[in-house]
Amino acid sequence: MQTLVLLALVGLLAQLVDGSLGMAYGVTSTTLLLLVGTNPAAASATVHFAEIGTTLASGVSHWRLGNVDWKVVRRIALPGAIGAFAGATFLSSLSTEAAAPIMAGILLALGAYVLVRFTAWGMPKGRLGKPVRRRFLTPLGLVGGFLDATGGGGWGPVGTPALLASGRIEPRKVIGSIDTSEFIVAIAASIGFLVGLGSAGVNLLWAVGLLVGGVIAAPIAAWIVRHVPSRVLGSAVGGLIVLTNARTLLDALGAAPALRTAAYVVLALVWAGAIAWSVRAHLIERRAETVPATPEPEPAAPAASAAEADTPAHPASPAPSAPLD
């Protein structure tokens, strides 16, 4: 019972992050599962089984609100599923000793991306443009799906910024399309883990615990979106992911205690600095939004020259001459 409560808390925290940022459910939940000692392959498998339920609910919600571009979903979901299946079978074939540093490295890279992305630029923004081409979506889906399975997350951090940066789809449809297509990716990854690990390697009860926590967190995440700046939250979560997986990576590599301490201190200082920078940037942005723009003064009329001033604008017509006698 205590384990289920802990997993529900993990799922709740991960959904708070994902519901607030539109990404990082898998990265956050897998990181927390590894932190409590879960096998890397089992952690990723458990997260993806839970995501079948969370992504289905999210996809239906986005579809009902008109936030889904079905052309994008069709073009990215199948490559994503292929990449996720390949990543799941690859991770399942590795031993725990080999898989731990690989997954920690991928998660650390994704966490660093989230940290830099939100600290430096805030919430990604896009602009409406031309349709997204298949030659762009196919490799994006393959890479995102593979990283999602091997790293326990990555579909959102890889796919969402790439689509936003393309400038060819409006932001709300980027989030909706990525969330909807992730349902197919989660199914493919789960099948891959079943093939590689067997049903005994996947703890469905843990997946249910994560799912329950995610469902409870959904309305809380909506509140966070309204009250906590996404820029600050992204910096906080990204730093947490980096710090946690740096610890796992240093342990797996057998780093000396002095090196570990120095690395933790540096990362903690960078994390604190990133949060402070994000808070400052958010306050500046909010101040700029609340202060009305000052209208520019109209240019003054040019001063008339001395010659023009002495000359009347409309010279008087000459007086009529007196009649001759």
From TrEMBL:
It is found in: Cell membrane; Membrane. It is a multi-pass membrane protein. InterPro entries: TM_pro_TauE-like (IPR002781), TSUP/Inactive_protease-like (IPR051598). Residues 301-314 have a biased composition (Low complexity). GO terms for cellular component: plasma membrane. The keyword Acyltransferase does not apply. Residues 315-325 have a biased composition (Pro residues). The chain crosses the membrane at residues 98-120, 180-198, 204-225, 262-279. Residues 290-325 are annotated as: Disordered. The keyword Lyase does not apply. Keywords: Cell membrane, Membrane, Transmembrane, Transmembrane helix. Belongs to the 4-toluene sulfonate uptake permease (TSUP) (TC 2.A.102) family. This is Probable membrane transporter protein. It comes from Streptomonospora nanhaiensis. The lineage of its organism: Bacteria, Bacillati, Actinomycetota, Actinomycetes, Streptosporangiales.
